């Protein structure tokens, strides 16, 4: 009996290892996933290690005599209307972008996944109440809801992140619910229930891990949207506040000097575009890797 | 058979309209709720810091701010249903009139953006789908990914720089009523519509390409080829028609971003539409105008979604039974 269960356990670990190796193989051969990883890896490296080399004081140091310097040896990305070095601000802006993405998608996941999971698992009136509420939140165009929330909370980067996070809660709730509904039907969930496991344990230990793939994809794609939305709010003056080196705010400040110093807008614009592209590619790639049936169906998209 | 399908469609449509009404009520509650927990005293905002407590209290009385929130909500909702959204605290004009004045400008902008996106994206997607893995396909992909990744306001600034500042061929801001001056209207809407439509165009191009590739693999296409039907007819008369459903889906999914984009793009181009009205109301804490404009934008957004869904149901009857809501 003991030997049998040891065999079973070994078989399970082997199966798991094979599955992981298989996933990794597919990941490596997926050009979108690899390209996305490189771009986001770059962002993380700059965002995490950049501040070790550049201080906020340096990035905000005024040097009016040298304002509007075009890109050159002294200032590879030029200087802005206050003579601040654009490159230094771009480097520190990377950390702000990580913060933006992490906080807003963190909020959306932390609220949306449990709501969707409970709705899908419990069903009935609970499901109806939660999902109709989510439908109502989804009836607002995303930025408009975020704008209204920021207007209530007051303009700041953190408030903008909270607003964007709230806006994306229903998207996570929807994805999670539809996955949970299908996973709950599986035999192993019934087995766990039959063994008398508590519902909360079954939901969080048996059901959710098996519903994770689409949630991860949703998270990656939402990161791209969050960066864009935050840039939009900062551009409107409702997100990051001066002198924070946020990319969206930098573009806002470049508006009046566009003809004179286009580099003030171009480099932060490239920063945003690279990050958004990275998360989009990563999301597409992860979807292909985690869900081979889907990528077979949509095969045309990957070629 | 035909009437059975019609009856089924009618049932589906009725259910969707019912859901819309419920959602609208919910949206009105959320909008009113958010706006009315705004920190700051409206009376203080109108009269300024130097107003005496007595005058503030009198104004609160006359605005009805001392009544319980749910009474004020019902009062407001009753007004909205009869076309009275109150008066703007900032401008003093009726909110409904301000909205009706701005709505056509935004509708024109959104319409122009969709038209540009569709007319560019479908041919691009077809070229890329037919010439898969060639330089044409590659270039299209680069354009599409650029459109998806660039923020719309950044693209707007680039367009202003090139077409308004550098070449001085198009105006950088403002709006001209196209019914009065069609050429002027088009010239003023060109840049904002391009900025707004770029992302939609990018998504549509990718979707057209992948669904066309999918269709070209289908059995009926191989059959048509073996019967000697020209490649042109296959693409334009058969495959593209079937590839249209996923394209419609993309338009449906992107409507929300189009509406979000309107708020930002109207700001960039000082375009006097509904988005700019709502944004200024938010900055001014003009509560009645915020409530009215946000509710209007959300309503138009939901109606557009409804139209896309119904259109989808007409084109693909399976949706009606498959819980497409």
List keywords for this structure.
heterodimer, A: mainly alpha, MetI-like fold, globular, B: 325 residues
Model description:
The complex is a heterodimer of chains A (303) and B (325). Chain A is mostly helical and 303 residues long. Chain A has a single domain, classed as Orthogonal Bundle (MetI-like fold). Chain A has helices at residues 2-28, 31-53, 56-60, 86-122, 124-138, 142-153, 157-184, 187-194, 199-210, 212-235, 247-254, 263-290, 292-297, 299-302. Chain B has a domain at 101-316: MetI-like (MetI-like fold, Orthogonal Bundle). Chain B has 14 helices and no strands. Chain B has helices at 2-36, 42-47, 53-63, 69-81, 95-130, 135-149, 152-166, 182-216, 219-226, 231-242, 244-268, 274-284, 287-315, 318-321. In chain B, helix 7 packs across helix 8 and helix 12 (274-284) packs antiparallel against helix 13 (287-315). Chain B is globular. The interface between A and B is large, with 43 and 57 residues. Chain A: It is found in: Cell membrane. Chain A: It comes from Halorubrum tebenquichense DSM 14210. Chain A: InterPro entries: BP-dependent_transpt_permease, MetI-like, MetI-like_sf, OppC_N.
């Amino acid at each position: 009996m003991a030997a049998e269960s040891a065999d079973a356990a070994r078989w399970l670990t082997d199966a798991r290892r094979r599955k992981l190796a298989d996933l990794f193989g597919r990941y490596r051969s997926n050009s979108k996933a690899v390209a996305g990883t490189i771009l986001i890896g770059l962002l993380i490296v700059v965002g995490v290690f950049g501040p070790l080399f550049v201080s906020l004081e340096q990035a905000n140091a005024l040097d009016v005599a040298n304002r509007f310097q075009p890109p050159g040896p002294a200032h590879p990305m030029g200087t802005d209307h206050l003579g601040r070095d654009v490159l230094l601000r771009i480097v520190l802006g990377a950390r702000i972008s990580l913060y933006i993405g992490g906080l807003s998608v963190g909020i959306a996941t932390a609220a949306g996944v449990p709501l969707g999971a409970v709705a899908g698992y419990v069903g009935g009136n609970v499901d109806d109440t939660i999902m109709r509420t989510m439908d109502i939140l989804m009836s607002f165009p995303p930025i408009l809801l975020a704008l209204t929330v920021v207007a209530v909370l007051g303009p700041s980067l953190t408030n903008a992140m909270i607003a964007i996070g709230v806006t994306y809660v229903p998207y996570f709730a929807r994805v999670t619910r539809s996955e949970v509904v299908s996973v709950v039907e599986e035999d192993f969930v019934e087995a766990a229930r039959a063994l008398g496991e508590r519902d909360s344990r079954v939901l969080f230990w048996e059901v959710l891990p098996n519903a994770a793939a689409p949630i991860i994809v949703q998270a990656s794609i939402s990161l791209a949207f969050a960066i864009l939305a935050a840039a939009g709010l900062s551009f409107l003056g409702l997100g990051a506040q001066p002198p924070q080196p946020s990319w969206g705010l930098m573009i806002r400040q470049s508006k009046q000097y566009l003809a004179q110093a286009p580099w003030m807008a171009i480099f932060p614009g490239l920063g945003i575009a690279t990050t958004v592209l990275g998360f989009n590619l990563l999301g597409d790639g992860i979807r292909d890797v985690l869900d081979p049936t889907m990528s077979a169906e949509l095969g045309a998209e990957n070629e | 058979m035909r009437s059975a399908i019609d009856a089924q469609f009618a049932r589906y449509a009725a259910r969707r309209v019912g859901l819309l009404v419920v959602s609208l009520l919910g949206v009105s509650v959320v909008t009113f709720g958010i706006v009315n927990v705004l920190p700051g005293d409206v009376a203080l905002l109108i009269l300024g810091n130097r107003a005496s407590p007595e005058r503030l209290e009198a104004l609160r009385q006359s605005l009805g701010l001392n009544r319980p929130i749910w009474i004020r909500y019902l009062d407001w909702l009753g007004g909205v249903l009869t076309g009275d959204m109150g008066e703007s605290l900032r401008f003093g004009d009726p909110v409904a009139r301000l909205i009706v004045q701005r709505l056509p400008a935004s509708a024109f902008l959104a319409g122009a953006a969709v038209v540009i996106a569709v007319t560019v994206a479908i041919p691009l997607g077809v070229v890329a789908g037919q010439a898969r893995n060639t330089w044409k396909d590659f270039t299209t992909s680069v354009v599409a990914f650029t459109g998806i990744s660039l923020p719309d306001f950044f693209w707007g600034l680039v367009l202003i720089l090139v077409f308004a500042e550098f070449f001085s061929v198009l105006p950088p801001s403002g709006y001209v009523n196209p019914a009065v001056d069609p050429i002027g209207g088009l010239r003023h809407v060109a840049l904002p519509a391009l900025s707004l439509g770029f992302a939609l165009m990018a998504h549509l191009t990718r979707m057209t390409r992948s669904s066309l590739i999918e269709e070209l693999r289908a059995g009926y296409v191989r059959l048509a080829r073996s019967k000697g039907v020209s490649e042109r007819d296959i693409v334009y008369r058969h495959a593209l028609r079937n590839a249209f459903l996923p394209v419609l889906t993309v338009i449906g999914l992107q409507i929300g971003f189009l509406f979000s984009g309107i708020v930002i793009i109207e700001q960039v181009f000082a375009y006097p539409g509904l988005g700019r009205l709502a944004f200024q109301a938010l900055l001014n804490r003009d509560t009645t105008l915020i409530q009215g404009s946000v509710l209007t934008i959300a309503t138009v957004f939901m109606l557009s979604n409804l139209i896309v869904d119904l259109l989808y149901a007409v084109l693909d009857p399976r949706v009606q039974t498959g819980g497409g809501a």
